[in-house]
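Justification of computing resources. Each target in the renewal requires a structure prediction run like the one illustrated here; the chain below, 166 residues long, is used simply to show the kind of job we budget for.
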Amino acid sequence: MRLYILEIHFAQKISFLHARTIAEAIKRFQRIYTQYAEQVPSHIREVHANETVILDIRTGEVHCIGDNNMLRKCIDNLMHLNAPIEWIPSLEIHQSVKPDLFSITIHKACLMKGSPQYNEVGITVWESILQVSLYDHREFWNALKRFLHIQVLSVSELEQLIKNKL
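Resulting structure tokens:
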């Protein structure tokens, strides 16, 4: 069985199901979402084991699922939505061989005085919000996850979470 995702953004629908083939997944999603039956085939895809999920820990909502580039954009958007100021530092993704060692750091240029990306007021505000130094990469990432109320999961962890909820 493979995990498939239906992402209909204009209707704000994200659903998962297990199926043997994409054809089976399409038919099952079409039965569930009859009002979007025609759109289902173009909004469904298989979820790959190397993808990562960002989950809202308050609501259980999946913010995004995808590769590292997608996750960085998602976190960037979440920061913009929740920031008290307009300045958002550029982010870099780091992923170890182990999937649970995914982390985000601030791009070095944002932390170097004299750099066009450096913003002293922005750094001060973010440090005040997160209650950590932006120069401490591990603490920054942990504080950012708490501030945004997110959890980063592997696809297998998401599948296990779904199974436990059922």
